[in-house]
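Look at a sample.

——
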Amino acid sequence: MPDMKLFAGNATPELAQRIADRLYISLGDATVDRFSDGEVAVQINENVRGSDVFIIQSTCAPTNDNLMELVVMIDAMRRASAGRITAVIPYFGYARQDRRVRSARVPITAKVVADFLSNVGVDRVLTIDLHAEQIQGFFDVPVDNIFGTPVLLEDMANRGLEDPVVVSPDLGGVVRARATAKALGDIDIAIVDKRRPRANVSEVMNLIGDVEGRDCVIVDDMIDTGGTLCKAAEALKERGAKRVFAYATHAVFSGSAAKNIKNSVLDQVIITDSITLSKEMAATGKVSQLTLSSMLAEAIRRISNEESISAMFSN
């Protein structure tokens, strides 16, 4: 069996170290820096010839810098004769650009990134909760898209929720909400139906479901500015919700996210460490972070040992 080695870029060093600790190995020695003109400079400082190499790097903000770090590291490993290279991308950036709507003159950037990684020489990709599952088909190499839901479900189960109801923040998230509700004992769901009656008229939040006097759990794959999430929370509280919690795998938190969440009626926002939490977001006092390290470590171990990934979620 090839020697397994773990390396990390600069996107999520804390998560990478947690994964290494779970696997009882040290992170590989690599220098990932910048030249004076800003170009990515990578040096692999140990022998990787024939090794089973895993590179941990989310392509979160600064998205282009982190993507280039990953690509250049893959190329460096390939030229150093690594036996197999797996890109571990906890958060896959550009995933929201996955189609052309009504033949608009726009790129399918998720496909561009998939081609970029495939062509540079990656052998396999491991990621969590792709924004659109069909992105797996954009790659010319195997992709394991695992679910972050078990980590979130464990926290939900231990939070002492009273008469809970799972809430989808929009119509597109109903499947996720139903799956979460089933996992929590087939509890009720509610749906926030966001509509704009006509141009230049404020959005109307219609609520489908009963939330009065109940704890509400909003579930989504990611939180960006948090604007829609905060409006959904307001709608729930206006309809008598007791407490409102928001759960998401990926904490993008861009733009005015810190201000929006701090000033919102949300009781708590629970996310994972697929993206490093900024000090500004931590200072809101409303954000709790769970770790994906155990799940990712197990997936990496299984890939290295040629074991089933799907068996992790068979129950």
Notes: The chain has a mean pLDDT of 94.
